[in-house]
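G., the chain you wanted modeled:
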Amino acid sequence: MKLDAPVTGGPCWTELGTSDLDGARRFYTRLFGWRPETDARQEAGGYTVARLGDAAVAALAPLYQPSQPVAWNVSFAVTDADAAVRAVTEAGGTLLLDPMDVFDMGRFAVAADPGGAVFQLWQAGTFPGAGLFNAPGSLGWVELMTRDPERAVSFYTRVFGWTVAPSDRYTQFGVGGADFGGMVTMDEKFPPEVPAHWLPYFAVADVDDTTAVVQRHGTVLMVPTSVPDGPRIAVLRDPQGAMFGVYRAGDES
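Predicted structure as tokens:
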């Protein structure tokens, strides 16, 4: 990721909705060396911020409704959540959760693109988002898995004004040309029951070592692979079923 801090239109945060908050805390602390801090306020509902040193890097939270899947979610920074929601619906997306204030930290909404991939909108108050990117244990890339790439490009460029670097192999998204993520077309290798989704990638010092840890406690979906002219990556699943990717720190696109 060529971004090193939250910027308008770019990914600013990632959070896990999980069926086992205590188990997730143990798993990711072991995997990434995170220091989890749970908000003690009853209204926070067990929301837990993971830190590396003093920097907030991600969050873990219980499932707040029965229909919510166990999954990692990606938030994109906006200056006005209400205006961003209008842009989403005008571009053909769906609003899943109306904008709401989160204490004095910011304003939050949940939406889905026309292909069904869920994402979050974050209007910063006192909390701008992650305090660290691209370092081991922190967010370093986000990837859209979609069955309709042309419609996805049209939607996200209209909503966020992203720049697009297309290629035959891999399309990348950016803010002002600073790439932060990419897009994969879901073909017949993806089971039909797997929905379109956003996949966060965390930087790690060693992809193979990280994968070995997950093999003991979770599931390996894609074994460590060196991408031609790109990073070494793997796609993994935690014990509760949430998917995420890892890549070797220093191999940013």
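The first strand starts at residue 11 and ends at 18.

Shout if anything looks off.
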